[in-house]
Amino acid sequence: MIIGIDDTDSNEGMCTTYLGALLLEELKTCGTVETFPLLIRLNPTIPYKTRGNAAVALRIKTGCPEKVIAHVLSRIEALARMECEKTNPGAVFILEKDYEKLRPVLRNFLEKAVRDVIEIQDAKNLISEYGISSKGFKNGRGLIGALAACGAMLNLEVWEHTFEHLAYRQKERWGTPREIEKESFFEADRKTYPETWDTVDLKNRLIVCVPHSADPVLFGIRGENPIIVSEAASLIRAEPVERSAVYRTNQGTDMHLLPAVNLAEIQDMHSYRLEGTVSAVPKTIPGGHVIFPIRDTEGNGIDCAAFEPTKNFRLLIRKLRPGDKVALSGSVNSGTLNIEKIEIKTLAPLYKEENPKCPSCGKNMKSSGQAQGFRCKKCGTQAASKIICEIKRDLEAGSYEVPPCARRHLAKPLVREQKSDLKIHPAR
Ligand SMILES: [Zn+2]
C-alpha cells in the first residue's frame, strides 16, 4: 500500500519527513518497504503552507493494512503540531488493488498540487468519489499534499527526481543550537559537487543544508542519486545523529514551472518560465530589492524582482538595460515575478556621445564653442560634430541563478541543466 502524509509540522517544530523516517522503521513489523520514501514539494507560492510545503509518501508491502493505518494515524496524533493554527495534517492510504485505477487521477492531482492551486474541498471530493481511505485532522488541508505524494509514488516514471539524505537530531537536542563542524560541510561539497548541490554557498560562505528552526533536521544533503548524497553525509562531522533517511524527491527539478506563451496569462500563485524584453532600468527599492519591468511582443508587461535575500545576484540584475532580451523563471505573487533564474539571450547595444578623436595624434578634440565644431589644439585638425560610440556592457549573455542560500526547493540548479548551447554561470 501507499501512505501519503502532509502538514504535520509547524513553524516552530516537527517535520513531516521525520515522521516518515520514524514510520519507515516502525512499520517494519507490518511489512517491507518497497522503495525510497518520497519527499514532494508542492506549489511554493501557497500562502497558508507550513515551512517547506513538503509532503511524504511511503510504499510498503503488507498483509495487514488495517494495522498500518491505525499505527500511522496514532503517530500523527502523537507527533503533529496540532496546536499550531497552520498545522492541518492529512493522511491517505492507497491499497494495491486500487493502484491502476488511481494512477492517472492522482497524476493530474500531483501536477496540479505542484503548479496550481487546489482547494481542500477538491481533495475531499476526490477522496469520496474514489472511496479512498483517508483521515484529515482539523481543517484537513494536509489531504492535498498527502494525495499528491501518493500520486507521485504511483507515477514515478513521469517526473524527474533527485535525492536528499536527511539526518535527524536526538530528541533532547531539539530547539538547541546545532553543533556542527562547519569545515566538514565545505569538504563534503568539494568532494561531491556537482553531483550534490546546495550543501554550502561558497560565495556567501554559508552552510545552506542546515536549518535554523527548532525542527528535528540536523542537515539534508541534496544530490543526483542515493549513493552520492549518503557519501557526502558520511563526510559531515557534527553532533550525534539519531536517525537518517534517504528520500526520493522533486526538489531541484523545476517541476513547478509553467511555460508562459505571453505575459497576459500570468497569474499570482503560479510559477513560470517566460520571456520578454527589459523595458526600464532596474530600480533598487527600500529593503534592497531590485525591480525591473519586462514586456512581451504584444505589449503585456510584468515587474520582475531580485529580492534582498538573493544577495550578489542583485548586482547582476542591476546591470540590465532596456532592450535586453531575457528568459526568466520564478514565482508570481502580487503581480511580481520573484526571479529564480535568468537567461540573458541578447544584450541591447548601448551608446554614448563623445568628442571626436584627432586623426593625426589620437587625442580627444576639444569643443571650439557652441555650434563651432571640434578641433585638436595641437594639430589643428577639425571635426563638425560629436561621434556616437558603443559602450561595452559589463554583462555577458548566458544563464544565471540566485545563490544557493536563496534557492527555492523546487528550482533546478543551473549545474543540473546539461544544455551545451547555453553559456551557464552557476552561482558558486
Ligand atoms: Zn591631434
Short description:
The protein has 428 residues and is of the alpha+beta class.
Describe it for me?
With 428 residues, this protein is of the alpha+beta class. It folds into 4 domains: 2-158, 2-Layer Sandwich (Alpha-Beta Plaits), CATH 3.30.70.2200; 162-249, Glycinamide Ribonucleotide Synthetase, Chain A, domain 4 (Alpha-Beta Complex), CATH 3.90.600; 257-347 and 393-425, OB fold (Dihydrolipoamide Acetyltransferase, E2P); 350-391. It is 21% helix and 30% strand. It has 8 helices and 26 strands. The protein has helices spanning 16-26, 65-79, 99-115, 120-130, 142-154, 182-192, 226-234, 313-317; strands at 2-6, 31-33, 38-41, 54-62, 90-94, 133-136, 162-169, 196-197, 200-201, 206-207, 217-223, 241-249, 257-259, 270-278, 283-285, 289-295, 301-306, 325-333, 336-346, 350-354, 366-367, 374-375, 382-383, 387-391, 398-401, 424-425. Strands 1, 2, 3, 4, 5, 6, 7, 8, 11 and 12 form a 10-stranded mixed sheet that branches. A 5-stranded mixed beta barrel has the order 14-16-17-19-18. α3 (99-115) crosses α5, α4 packs across α5 and α6 (182-192) runs antiparallel to α7 (226-234). The longest helix has 17 residues, at 99-115. The model has no long low-confidence stretch (mean pLDDT 94).
